[in-house]
Batch of 2 targets.
Target 1
Amino acid sequence: MKHYLTLHWQSATRALMHILRQPLASLLNLLMLSLALALPLSLYLAVQSIEDWSGKLNVTPELTIFMEMNSEPADLAAVESTLKNHPKVGGFAFIDKDHALEALEARNGIAGMSEGLDGNPLPDAFVVKPASLQTQDLDLLQKELSGLPMVENVQFDAAWAQRLSQLLKLGEQLTLFLGIAFAVALVLVTHNTIRMQILARRDEINISKLIGASDSFIRRPFLYHALWQGLLSALLAWGMASYLIHVANPVLAELARLYNEQLALRSLNAGELGLLLLIAAFLSISGARLATDHHLRQAQAH
Amino acid sequence: MIQFDQVSKRYPGGFDALKNLSFSIENGEMVFLAGPSGAGKSTLLKLVSGIERATSGNVIVNRQNLSQLRASQLPYVRQHIGIVFQDHKLLYDRSVFDNVMLPLDIIGFDRRDAARRVRAALDKVGLLNKEKSMPIGLSGGEQQRLCIARAVVHRPSILLADEPSANLDRAYALDIMELFKSFHQVGVTVLISAHDETLMEDYGRRIIRLREGQFAS
């Protein structure tokens, strides 16, 4: 067992030395791989950060039903009983027009405003909390409520939140798509670099085989090379994404301040960084494995 | 022990390199393999080392039937065999020392012990003072001896040499033969092929003569 570990340790250190001995070529390779990782990674972080932020906002969508100015108490009662029995309504509150005016005056510090008006310009209103937040359900509910007698207008207060969550969903899907596309790219790029290395070291491989090297002996240095390449490019991609965040955050903060909000992109946490390293390692080893297996199969055929 | 039991080898294209050959070589024996070019000497050596597989018959090396062995097991058979190739098959981008290190790396020898072994093997073939040189700077005879050092560094029980004295002058060739004899004297089974029989006859060892894939009488 110790012997086996020594062999692997030897291969691992030698593969790392091999990368370090050709700094320029290795760096170009790593840059290519890390760019492929950094793009979906940055998008992931952006979507995650905006989701975190939007989750903290009070974005429970509400519908507000404004009654006609000349609606009678009987009309109000009718709407109220409809709301009480409607399956798509999670809860509701009635806002009496007199209270609404008082609240408006209190909020804006314009006490006595109503004295300059001919009566109360505000309508009676209901604030409805929908049971379901699905877009179709909300649209349907809005339509149904608009159709009730003596209802002037039904406003959907959180339409923008709804749109934001749709956009975020799109962002998530884009991240997933990009992630998969670049994962495939990572495998292919590694496959190619390892294939080039195999070609460059073909004599060594053939001679080693002739004097008793097993397939796993042949494969091992290439797999370790790919492993290092994957891990280093993941770290580099992490660095790129962190830099991007570092640059973007002051700009975002300034933008958010205009809306009285706080918005900052977050960096990877330890778990996510670990996962990133694991995925990068797995993908590059897969690429190297494809390349070595292909070569060994060809060598076998001779 | 090496045992051939009705072994034939036909290459793709229909060329019969060996035809129904049976013989055996005891442990520790030194045997010469003679015959003109194309007689099947190289093929025979390739069958012993598992580089090629017999088309029919059994090739038994160190009590293992190579004809029945899975391809993935062949490398481990080869690790007990030392091979001196006709065209040397050296790594020209590595030093003399690293070339001899290769078989020990493959077996997974401890690095410090390995360096000692490599120097002992280089000393044996008289190349110890060239361990840092690159093979390309060596003469033909020195390259041949480097190949021998690599073939014996892991102390194989069988040593195969394909035309080791080809392209060498007679004095040098005799040197090389003496080297093989010294391995034979420490118990290694040695099988050497050559098309020039004059070298072999001086040694009084068994000679297997081949002609067109069969024993020549």
Note: The helical segments of chain B are 41-48, 74-78, 96-107, 111-124, 140-152, 170-185, 198-201.
Target 2
Amino acid sequence: MTNCEEFISQLANKYGRKRESLLAIIHEVINQYYYLSEESMTAIARELNMPAAEVYGTATFYTFFDTKPQGKYVIRVCQTIVCDMKRKEDIVDAIYELLRIKPGETTSDGKFSLYYTNCLGMCHEGPAMLINDEQYAKLTPESVKDILVNYMKK
Amino acid sequence: MPTSTVKRTDLIFKKDIDYSAVMHKIMKMGKDEFIEELIDSGLRGRGGAGFPTGLKWKLVKAEQSPEKYIICNADEGEPGTFKDREILDNAAEKVIWGMTLAAYITGAKEGFIYIRAEYKYMQTKLRIAIDRMEQNIKALGIKFKLDLVFGAGAYICGEETALIHSMEGYRGEPTNKPPFPVTQGYLNKPTVVNNVETFVNAIIIAEIGAKEYKKLGTKASQGTKLFSVSGDCCKEGIFELEMGMTVQQFVDEFGDGDTKAVQVGGASGFCVPRKEFPNTIIGFEGVPTGGSMKVFNSSRSMYNTLENYLIFFEEESCGQCTPCRIGTQQLLMGIHAVKRKEKPKSYLDELLKLAQTMKFASKCGLGRSVGNAFGSIVTNFREEIIY
């Protein structure tokens, strides 16, 4: 067994070998490997006794489940109307100045990926973004750079 | 300074509920009696659709099944809505006890909070609150196991049948109703699916009684409601208000003095233009809302607003049924074409017809509600869409 298969087997023990465990397992795999590789999808399929195509089909329905390599830190900037009114594009520009990536791209060192996302539920404190599970609100081009510099040091 | 005509209330975030005492009271009162109380309170689902909560619980209670489930819908994805996040962040106990109450009444032994991945940062806090509840109910002799389930970035999973599929490990695609979740829900067992705020209201009704609760709001929209206020406002945030006010009253309180439109109910809600403010009531008798109130002043382009909504819907449509999948794409391409003068102005009327068709032909609430924003913005701000 490879490390990845071993890890998934443990997850299946933890959550139970049933279809209802699928999303929880995928969440943990993505926490660990930042995306869902072919190897991990096949391993999940084997553990849950379901076709690998079903794992792929289910995973690709959800925007937070990536099946292509992602940065260690995935930045998701809210693009929905109120954050748009509060100039979300200035935030995206500031990120570009610092990391040289546009929405949809990953830095060459594999540390950051940038995406637009839909309403984060932070409209009253927009513009807002998510870095992995952490929420950041009331962003300014300066504050977003400060936040990212801290992540660069990690 | 004009006096405020908006009625503030403070039930949802008020801290002091003795949950064990409330549960004792309800256990003494009896399950059927409490259901009658809940029906009498007039509480309707706070997610936006407004199904009577008491009736939902009654239907699940009536089902003869050893397994039943209580699900809290915390997949808050409607643009401009953030009250569920605020509740879970600051009053999670009320949600958890509201669910425990539902479990006791309906005879469910297991429950889940389905929470969107965007709110994962609250995980630890919620687990601690759940542990505390599970300790406390032991003394009451109630068996109820509660767990968290995370979504993964899909607006459609806020629709209850899609949510259930997602929990079962499938693509979050809605199915036709009936069967309704009250008879065949999670794992095909009778299931209560309620919004976060609904559970909070249920426990509040258990505490203060239907008689007190009914004093708030109007006949069609009883009780209080949390409003998520954002946009061009003098104050943004979460406000607990009595239902039944007019948009004018709302704008007088929250607007920046130059309000030209209010989008009530998020992207799937209605756009109310200035001339309609005095005659439009916020509530089930007028414009219903899950609580999203987005305020636009005269510097905003309603074309941009509409385009933003359509991009949202086009991305979030699950793609299962044709009217919604193709309809959202065509509406977006259509307004682009009119703006670029590739299509005549009258093409907007064709698009309005398409939006109307989507209302009737789409499988679920997503496709059916695209026409609300589209119709109300295009009708009221036609010039802005064309020029």
Note: Residues 3-61 of chain A form one domain.
